[in-house]
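Q: I'm writing a short methods note and want an example of a predicted protein-small molecule complex. Could you take the sequence and the SMILES for zinc ion and return the bound structure as tokens? Please keep the output block clean; save any remarks for afterwards.
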Amino acid sequence: MNFQKAGEVLTEVWNNMVIEGHNVVVEYLEPDDSAESFVPDLPSPQWYSEHMRESQYLLQVHLVKCDDRACCGDVRSSLRSILSKHFLIPPYTILQSSSSLCIPKPRV
Ligand SMILES: [Zn+2]
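A: Understood, no commentary inside the block.
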């Protein structure tokens, strides 16, 4: 009952939001017991490889639109000028050597 109430309250809050000029439309759905209803549609492996980066400590969705306008639409900012690889650099392991901090070379 707590989850249902939280869902109903969030539905009310989100339905009153406008994001970038678009009304947010949300509907609370009663959960059912079928496992099938909880499986989201997964993106294709090609889309995933183009738009996602995954590591032990980081899951990153493409921050910059891909080159396919049919996929991500027109570019509206100059974010690509600072993120030319479309993603933030991954976190580095930093080790303390006897004299300073260092980033170990990746194992091949
Ligand atoms: Zn795209």
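A: Remarks, as requested: The chain has three helices and six strands. The helical segments are 2-15, 45-51, 69-72.
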